[in-house]
């Protein structure tokens, strides 16, 4: 507790007082054998809200505070879900009900690990749940990946979805061909946004900047590249069907990539079988020759180098290694054959996965798996600390996967309360202590009622343009409206 830490004597006194400590001794007044459990959740995305929802439902006296780095809630539901998938965003209504619950509070504009430490949160709460997701990118690890013209799918999605940190991305869409590396749902979302008629997007909550850029886009051909084969493609059938049926776009697949696939169909699980049959249908029908745009699926290929133009200043192509599979089914491995293939393109998007990052040195972190090491959501060797969502299991699955995962963590936490593994005999001050501490550090929080001012402004701006909303892109502007 030093002045240079950003906490003066006043801050220390306020914080200790709210913890019930005076002159170095804890005061405990009028405590029952079990006080109301106070739980802190770090991260206001799906994992955080689902964990809160289950805790509030299962433990009738629990109080839950959610801390979020941005002034706005909902995480990847707001910034990751494609603008033309509004039905997926309906879960925001459920999250809003949770945030408005009398035993729940939301505190935006708080960067946990920087504005307040995990240890400080653990002093103020009976339990802390890490639900902050995966804001890092997996690197391709190839020469040229840092050249202009190469983007991560996370940043590209953040650009068209209004993530403040990606507002200055400005991708150059003046080239005819784009290559997307990876074949999961995010890759297909990006391909669809690049190729969709602008009329399909103009009433969504896509940012106006992105809409204008896409309206002037010269991209006519998108290749979605995967290192393994059709039987290992990572997307779901909904996204594939949308891609195959996209207006004025021909789905292009190479018949050679599907040799021997028909014989394997009978042994596939039903979801995989339906997915494969849809691709085989696209191969057989060959697509609409009159379509002006093309979406090509390329299998058995791995990126080995981003190729630069003669001046070396930007990406103008990508070199792919051709692969063969060793083994079969989901566990099949891609092995290089030694053959190479160069593809000319002006836009390269790496969609090979998100990655969680450590936010506080006091929290164990597995750098290889990029998760917080845990046993069923209990953080390794750290009593009272839990995790849920992507930081718990890695960046996989859909929103329903995160819901189930977060419910599991909530159940484990409640089990620990009931088994006496968390000391509920001590009153904890929760947000009272943390907001006092943040105040001394010059950090002002955004409450859920203040987020609703931002929400109303976005809907108002969207209505004037015939859109669902026009997202605010500048954090300072968000804060000005929230605190007005």
TrEMBL record:
The keyword Zinc-finger does not apply. The gene is fdxr. Belongs to the ferredoxin--NADP reductase type 1 family. One of its GO terms (cellular component) is mitochondrion. GO terms for molecular function: oxidoreductase activity. Pathway: Steroid metabolism; cholesterol metabolism. It catalyses: 2 reduced [adrenodoxin] + NADP(+) + H(+) = 2 oxidized [adrenodoxin] + NADPH. It comes from Sinocyclocheilus rhinocerous. GO terms for biological process: cholesterol metabolic process. This is NADPH:adrenodoxin oxidoreductase, mitochondrial. FAD binds at residues 47, 68, 76, 112, 390, 397-399. Residues 38-194 form the FAD/NAD(P)-binding domain. Gene3D superfamilies: FAD/NAD(P)-binding domain, NAD(P)-binding Rossmann-like Domain. NADP(+) binds at residues 183-186, 227-228, 239, 397. Pfam families: Pyr_redox_2 (PF07992). Its cofactor is FAD. It is an enzyme of class 1 (oxidoreductase). Keywords: Electron transport, FAD, Flavoprotein, Mitochondrion, NADP, Oxidoreductase, Transit peptide, Transport. It is found in: Mitochondrion. The lineage of its organism: Eukaryota, Metazoa, Chordata, Craniata, Vertebrata. Its main location: mitochondrion. Its EC number is 1.18.1.6. It comes from the Eukaryota. The keyword NADP applies.
